[in-house]
Amino acid sequence: MTKPVMRVPQEEAAVSAGAGERYFNRELSWLAFNRRVMDEACNPAHPLLERLRFLSISGSNFDEFFMVRVAGLLGQQLQQVEARSADGMTPSQQLTAISAEAEILADNQQSVWTVIRRDLAEAGIHVLEADALEGEIQEWLEVHFGEQIFPILTPQALDPAHPFPFIPNQGLSVIFDLVRDVDQEPIRELVLLPTTMPRFVRLPGEPARYVAIETVVKRFSYLLFPGYTVLGAAVFRVLRDSDLEIEEEAEDLVLTFRTAIKRRRRGRVIRLEMEDSIDPSLEAVLKEELGGSEALLTETGGFLGVGDLAKLVEEDRPELKFSPYTPRFPERIREYGGDCFAAIRAKDIVVHHPYESFDVVIAFLTQAAQDPDVVAIKQTLYRAGKQAGVINALIAAAEAGKSVTAVVELKARFDEEQNLLWATALERAGVQVVYGFIDWKTHAKVSMVVRREGNGFRTYCHFGTGNYHPVTARIYTDLSFFTADPRLGTDAAQLFNYVTGYVEPKALKLLTISPRDLRNRLIELIDGEIAHVRAGRGGAIWAKMNSIVDPAIIEKLYEASNAGVEIDLIIRGICCLRPGIAGLSENIRVKSIVGRFLEHSRIWAFGNGDALPNDNAQVFISSADWMQRNFDRRVEFMLPILNKTVHDQVLDQVMVANLLDSEQSWFLQPDGKYVRAETSEGAFNLHRYFMTNPSLSGRGAALEKRKPVPKLSLKRRRTAKGA
Fold first, then answer.
1. How far does CA 28 lie from the centroid of its chain?
2. CA angle, 320 as apex, 319 and 323 as ends, to 5°?
3. Residues 480, 517: one domain?
4. What is the CA radius of gyration of the chain?
5. Are residues 475 and 600 in the same domain?
6. Residue 7 lies in a domain
7. Domain check: are 94 and 242 in the same one?
8. Once rounded to an integer, what is the mean pLDDT over residues 101-109?
9. Lowest mean pLDDT, pick from 349-353, 406-410, 512-516
10. CB proximity list for 335: less than 8 A, separation 6 or greater
11. How many domains in the chain?
12. What is the crossing angle of helices 359-370 and 389-399, to 10°?
């Protein structure tokens, strides 16, 4: 049984005066989100290895934050760009605040690792330090080192004849201070630990015993440096600027990205992490050689590269992990003999991932590839991952002679290289590959199939709030919406023409897209709620998304709050809006849900004259968050949910469950702190609910036997407000 462990304190977000009274800083809000992720590593309700997984996720998130967000701020600072953020802070002020908060977070990560490591040992999973490598353990490791590790390592002397080598992004290395035994000549050596090497060595047999690779290398340094005495050794790690800069007039976008990816690996050092026991002379060398005067520095007595702890989660101990979960496949498609088109033609379907299988998306595309009546397929690809289900379906369709178009987004951060590989494979098969806009990302998730039926053609569409990524679809909560509505088919065709041929959409029937008019449409909808309240009717907004940053939308929500519109926001990550402030946002409540699955779907509901959204509410799904980049620099979609069954599922199931959740929820306070909801026996866990309760849409004849759908009562909602 997992023991209760410490709670990581929630640090108050620092804000500046003036604008800071209206907005939280984006970067500090993100750090607060990562603290919530890390706190799950301290949650005794989670199995032990799942707690470790949360800790590793917080480490990976932390790295990306530095490689992208901090890198951008450092770049502005070095170029003396003093543009202020929405909360009024300059880049230098933000970096100062980030540095302080980040070090607290890094220290807390190490403290949490210390506790989890102890609990792992009690559960029979040991992570050994150097002082435990004795007897038969040392004998086995010495042989393993000589056969499996020694041939891969390349020590490099550091002297005038051997300049300091390049350390790749996220590279882990050991620097040694040595003295030659024969003449006492001092020398420094550096050993880069290749990323192809496992971070941990697992000893054979049971119980499970692991040793970090850097511990092994330091312990057997006498095999690396025979004839030398080791005076000191220290592990260090670097994070580099990983944002890609693309020239506006790039003549060959593919070539430009291949070059930019290579440059990324050599980007400026943003963060230098070192053991806290490092000798001052070694520290001075690292600072000098790795640009320490510009990089943010940290020293730690714990484990460098917390994200790598995920390797330990692979240990085969199912009792220390969440119970396996098998997603459901929509019954209605089975009732039609697996014919996706017949089921969609009968009625719109929404699939709720990960509770319902992503296989239905693969089945939709695979059927399209095999169906002789399908004449064309158009598909956006933002993050498709390394599993080739979608790619294989598109290739099969092209090889079958169908017209296939794939919009491959090369600017999907950290997926650029994989997307280039997929683009090459698709082109070889005869797929028309398009890379979209140079300045904008195509972030909309849309699939479009044109099928010959009767004397004409019918268009089937899939719109997703998440990516066509079979791995993340098992852990991200997202919606897949299937429809044969001819209005959406026409709109989808215009969206593709916009991306592939820069043809401006005209007279869209149902879709709203950015960067054309998504922000303006949202402002119209919020204005509509304000008008309802002023006319004596009810006004309400429920919105679920990953982040809210855009000042124009935040200001409009403040206006709506002051008009009396009741606003409930479910914002998993960054929230720059300040809720609950009298005269500004007293009618706005913000909660964040962090649990077994990553809340990722974007859903927006507008009461349309009612204080609680119901059957009359306007409900939308989208690929966009409420951020400047989504409104101004990305191609996104928003579509209304008009089918009653789908409307009921999205509003009365998904949104209601998110608002009712009390077991995984944090409430944002006016001062920037997040307070975990008080849990009690019978607390509502939305992830557990959807794992045990079937959805409405796509159920076919099984719909009549469904379990009751939870309804949000005004009493429950007011309780949540005061949490």
1. 17
2. 60
3. no
4. 27
5. no
6. no
7. no
8. 93
9. 406-410
10. 343, 700, 701
11. 4
12. 10
630-673 confidence digits (pLDDT tens): 999 999 999 999 999 899 999 999 999 999 999 999 999 999 99
The first and second tokens of residue 288, run together, are 């000098």
Residue-range definition of the domain harbouring residue 458: 331-505
pLDDT recorded at residue 495: 96
In this prediction, residues 386-401 reach a mean pLDDT of 88
Q: Which residues are catalytic?
A: 443
Q: Is 682 helix (H, G, I), strand (E, B) or coil?
A: coil
- Reported confidence tier of residue 422, pLDDT bands at 50, 70, 90: confident
In a domain, 325, yes or no: no
Buried b (16+ CB within 10 A) or exposed e, 87-106: bbbbbebbbebbeebbeebb
CATH number of the domain bearing residue 158: 3.30.1840.10
CB-based burial label for 1 (10 Å; 0-12, 13-18, 19+)? exposed
Q: Answer whether 346's CB lies under 8 Å from 73's CB.
A: no
Overall average pLDDT of the 458-477 stretch: 90
pLDDT at 24 over 90: yes
- The CATH number of whichever domain residue 577 belongs to comes to 3.30.870.10
Shared-domain flag, residues 400 and 481: yes
Residues 353 and 437 in one domain: yes
Instruction: Tell me, yes or no, whether 326 lies in a domain.
Output: no
Q: Where is the domain boundary, 441, 475, 505?
A: 505
Least confident window among 192-196, 267-271, 352-356:
267-271
Q: Are residues 113 and 155 in the same domain?
A: no
Please, are residues 70 and 145 in contact by the beta-carbon 8 Å criterion?
A: no
For the ranges 408-412, 609-613, 627-631, the maximum mean pLDDT occurs at 627-631
Distance CA 536, CA 404 (A): 52
Query: Is 5 within the bounds of a domain?
Result: no
Q: Which residue has the tokens 């080192």?
A: 145
pLDDT at 612: 85
Query: Cα dist. 650→364, 619, 644, 686, 705 in Å?
Result: 21, 8, 10, 14, 19
Question: Is beta strand 602-606 parallel, antiparallel or unpaired with respect to 674-676?
Answer: unpaired
Interval 367-373 mean pLDDT: 97
Distance CA 363, CA 357 (A): 10
Contacts of 619 (CB under 8 A, 6+ apart): 603, 604, 605, 606, 613, 640, 641, 647, 650, 651
Residues 115 and 141 in one domain: no
Q: Indicate if the pLDDT at residue 357 is higher than 70.
A: yes
Rounded Cα distance between 50 and 313, Å, is 7
CA angle (557, 559, 565) in 5-degree steps:
70
Q: What pLDDT, in 10s, does the model give residues 582-613?
A: 999 999 999 999 999 999 999 999 999 988 88
Identity of the highest mean pLDDT range in 71-85, 226-240, 254-268: 226-240
pLDDT score at 421: 78
- Among residues 280, 313, 346, the one where a domain terminates is 313
Q: What angle do the packed helices 389-399 and 416-428 form, to 10 degrees?
A: 20
Tell me: pLDDT of 21 over 60.
yes
Beta-bridge partners for 604? 543, 620
Q: Are residues 205 and 61 in the same domain?
A: no
CATH number, domain of 42, equals 1.20.58.310
Give the per-residue SS3 of 564-590: CCEEEEEECCCECECCCCCCCCCCEEE
Task: Report how far Cα 56 is from the mean position of its chain's Cα atoms.
Answer: 13
With residue 75 as reference, give the H or E element that holds it.
helix 71-78
